[in-house]
Amino acid sequence: MKKLLLLSLFALSGAAAVQAAPARTEYVTRIESCEAILREFMGNPATAIPASVLQSAKALVIVNQFKAGFVLGLKDGYGVIMVKRADGHWSLPVLVGAGEVSFGLQVGANASETVMVITDDQVPRRLYNQRFNVGADAKAVAGPKVAETERYNHDILKVPVLVYSKEKGLYAGATVKTGWLQRNDDANFILYDTTYTMPELLYSDWVKPVPEVGPLMGYVQQIAP
């Protein structure tokens, strides 16, 4: 009887573990949602990123975060990071974890969508070995939008991270903290069917794009050639 009980417990724990691990379709959905976020930002002059900013980009991060508490705000989510390689082409979109947004919180908000333009090519490498705190580990400011093109100071392009969000009240150059980003090798193993990790996925051509990431890669190459 005890043996049967133990076997049952092992079976249940195994089933729970399988259920807890997201399927590849979930990771594909994350890629597609990040593409949709970027397209939505660029399609509206009130949130669109100017061409001059995109020309300075060494990396892009697109983040989708969800509210985990009623007043404490957004604490959990996911995103992708892409880097511009030395040959001018953009890398594979690499999945990352994201959380704890600390600006523009509103009671009742359900989600937060953010695009970060990274202008320092060393910043993405900080994700290799640690959780990267945007605004703490690298200075971050609200990026100028297309609607503000004639008014913003071009010195802002020297800031390592330019943050674009849909929260009202943020003006170009305002210092912000947008929480943390963290590598998610397990997700990328499943998405790309590979054992290569973040450094190889971002900076090498050893892993070929899977069909599902093609639209995002093509769109980023189009808006930031």
How does the SSE layout of this entry go?
Blueprint: H1 2-20, H2 24-42, H3 51-55, E1 59-67, E2 74-83, E3 94-99, E4 111-118, E5 132-134, E6 140-142, E7 161-165, E8 179-183, H4 185-192, H5 198-203, H6 214-223
Parallel strand pairs: 6-7
Antiparallel strand pairs: 1-2, 1-4, 2-3, 3-8, 4-7, 5-8
Overview in brief:
This protein has 225 residues and is α+β, with helices and mostly antiparallel strands. The protein contains six helices and eight strands, in the order H-H-H-E-E-E-E-E-E-E-E-H-H-H. The longest helix has 19 residues.
Give a short account of the largest sheet: 8 strands, mixed
Unreliably modeled segments: 1-19, 102-106
Distance between the termini: 67 Å
Which percent range fits the helix content? Answer: 25-40%
**Radius of gyration over alpha carbons?**
19 Å
> Would you report the number of β strands?
8
- Give me the secondary-structure category: alpha+beta
The mean pLDDT is 83
Strand order of the largest sheet: 5-8-3-2-1-4-7-6
User: How many domains, as an integer?
Assistant: 1
- Principal-axis shape equals globular
H/E order of the elements? Answer: HHHEEEEEEEEHHH
What is the number of helical segments per DSSP (H or I, 4+ residues)?
6
| Beta-strand fraction estimate | 15-25%
